[in-house]
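Dear colleague,

Thank you for sharing your sequence with our group. We've completed the structure prediction you requested, and as agreed, I am returning the results in plain text so they can be pasted directly into your records. Please verify that the sequence below matches your submission; if there's any discrepancy, let me know and we will rerun it promptly.
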Amino acid sequence: MKLAFHYFRTALIGASCRIAVRVVNMAGEQSFKAVVNDTNPKYGGRAFSVEITGSNYNHFLGKKIGDSVDGMFIGEGDQSLTGYRLEITGGSDLTGRPMRPDLDGSGVKSVLITAGIGYKGDKKVNKKGKTYRYKYDGLRRRRNLRGNVIGQETRQINLKIVEAGKRPLGVIFGVEEEVPADQSSGEEE
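Please find the predicted structure tokens below.
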């Protein structure tokens, strides 16, 4: 009898801990991590990471891959991308599953795919102590992938710049110094 009570007590404690963890996760504020890719060839394709929370978070729910969004919803205060226009190029959920543009909805779907988004399409082979990666024609695998709609399970959104604003991204995120419009020649009289 004592052994059965121990298992029952452990099961109750485990269940109440799981419920408490779920409540804490649901009560916490939801957020995205937006990765903004600078498409200007002058800067070499650098990327910046920004947290999106609050009402800006709600603006992205329901958007699809390929939709364009206004930059004022990304960042807060001085780091807002006002004047920019961005396109959603992809994303992933909390477990790292990539969003695939050809899958409708925001849920997880099991898909038989060839090489592309969500699967590299190679097979590792060990020969004489070395590992080689081969890409066979027609190699397909079943993978769990996320749909193309941003939902509450999405944790990262990839964005690229379609229209640039007045201030460069390096200045907005503090990587570069802002150059004043009227520079003096450096000579004083």
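Summary note from our side: Residues 2-172 form one domain.

Kind regards,
the structure core
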